[in-house]
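Ticket reopened. Same input as before:
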Amino acid sequence: MDSQLISLFLSFGLFASLLFIIGFFCILVSFNLVRVLIGVELLIKAVTLIIVAAGYVSGHVQLAQSLIITMIVIEAVIMTIAVGIVVGIHRKTNSLDVRNIRNLKG
Amino acid sequence: MHLNLFLLIALTIASIWTVMTRSLIRSAIGLALTSAILTVIMFRLNSSLAAVFELSVCTGLISVLFVSVISLTQPQTSKEIIQHMKSRLARFWYLPILVIVLGVGISVLIMKLKFAPTQIHLEPDVRIILWHLRKFDILGQIVILLAGAFGVVILFRESEKNG
Amino acid sequence: MHLFWLIFLPFLSLIILNLLPKAINKRISFAWASILSLMQLVLVFIPGCGSCGFSVIDSLSLMILFCIGIVTFVTLFVSRQFINPEKFGNFVNVILVALIGMNGAALARDVFTLYVYLEITAVASFILIALDKDLLGFEGAFKYLLMSAVASVLMISAIALLLILTGSTNFSEIHLALASPEKNNVMLTTVTIGIYLVALFIKSGLMPFHGWLPDAYSSAPATVSIFLAGIVTKVVGVYALIRVMISVLGFNHASQTVILLIGALSVILGALTCLTQSDFKRMLSYSSISQVGYIILGLGSGTPLGIAGATLHIFNHSIFKSLLFVNSAAVEKQTGLRDIDKMSGLAQKMPITGISSILGSLSAAGLPPLAGFWSKLIIIIALWVSGFYVYSVIAILGSILTLAYFLLLQRRVFFGKLKDEFVNIKEAGFNLAFPMVLLSVIIIIAGIFAPLILDKFILSFTRSIGG
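Engineering reply: fixed in the latest deploy. New output:
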């Protein structure tokens, strides 16, 4: 594989990894459930960037786009279900604090 | 050629702002902003169809979803908010520093980075033909949309004894 | 071509069942879904389904499809006892979606299609765990969702890297491209394999990524626990892992070492944690982690014998774990308890439950002539023959620990003196007793007839891996 293309991919990959770290940080440190979901969304953005870059670098732009479109549909549905669960938790405990849902002893 | 680099840095800054800003509504707006910047990057990388999809679904639908969740759940009292903000700052302050250090460190030490598009060999395939190849993914999309519909029906229905 | 109907038929049923008026829907949805799952058992045995357009179907997929059929049928049967008839239509809808997802994952020959159908199954699981809408259910569903989303993100990153390395998402093309090392960037390949493996470890619930599993299993409603433990986490986790390792990534020394290590860790730590639990379902969940570790040990040996043993253990684990969870559901329904410290002597009042739980436990521990013995034996032999003596010994040790904690469970819950408050309980109803008897019979038959079919079974693996 052409090393130029690899380094092009790695540069996009670096920023995608930074987005990954930001997303993970958001999930681990947040106290609010909705913010945890925002962290998950950021992870998904990072991975979309990786696929776009991979498609661009390997020349399979069309294949990458169809993968992205499918992925976006799937992640939209997962977010909807996640929001449903969060609303359910809110109805039961009247708060969105992550620390309230540590009832199960892991 | 540095437009790509600029866009990527803007993406990172937008996402850091999304995480660190104190109110949830601003976070949701920050998420929409991050999606918009990502869409522009996707356009520049020749993925126009996916970019439009990303714009409409992620920037539009998901932001509407988040704003509606935030408005469905009750706000805290002002005393709690101030306490909360102080503890937030204590937890989150080292994130931007971490990101900048990592980013600059890795790029300087390890890699020779380039952001300019070189001549890329594009597939001559037409999009329609590609969808024929990925029929089962389309079936999967339809099924997962149905599943989402069932989930919404099951999860969002008020239970009678809950009042 | 006929295996496609395993996906289309549930899909068409979903649409048609929802268009029917509510009264008819309530009555036929259970029957039709049960027929679909039973059909799955039969379809699998029709010979000559070699090339089906998706591509070649091998014995791994056939075995998984068979297990999916059995466990779905058992779940639907048991659900008649637990699910409110008003909500039955919705429940069957979500089960059908999960069925589509699992069948699609079993038949997929493309890494991205595999991902799509795994996500479908995951979405169905989230909805099922939160079905009762109690706080614990929501909590379990949320934790599972979070870990599953992280695993999915890692998996897609690995797929993107595979796209760069090999230019395709098809199993056979990637396998071919990865097998010729001179064209490839070794560092990138190693990173890709590592990321993919971590994603699948999280989805399988192996140590140290098991955080979501006990919570998800124990906070789900009783019926859903049977479904999840019996088949869903197996398809989404270990089946995907085995499929990816043998059809896509191929074995090399580093990945084998990692897999063996994590398998051994899960076997031992899962068994040890199991000894300290006092909740029936939590104990069974940690036992699941331990047994899945066994399957991974079989995979890690890298030989067709080991992989055949792993697949056989998947089958055995679906059967005996579903049986044990049905027992737990029966006990919970009749006594209202899940804390085993508070129970004793139940076998006198619930004989079917008691006997079937003994059969399930002994099969799990690997006692002859029950089914579990054969699969554990094959895994241990495969490890010994490939030179992994230490892991072989660990596997034997794990077997002893398994026997220990299951005997503990039996003694506490079913034997001993009957406590006063349990004098009035009766055996669980037909809806629970029939699946228990059915699964026990399958364990006994599979145990007795195993030697006869093993040759054919192992040979078919040699073909699919060597080729």
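The mean pLDDT of chain B is 77. Residues 4 and 141 of chain B are 32 Å apart (CA to CA). Please confirm and we'll close it.
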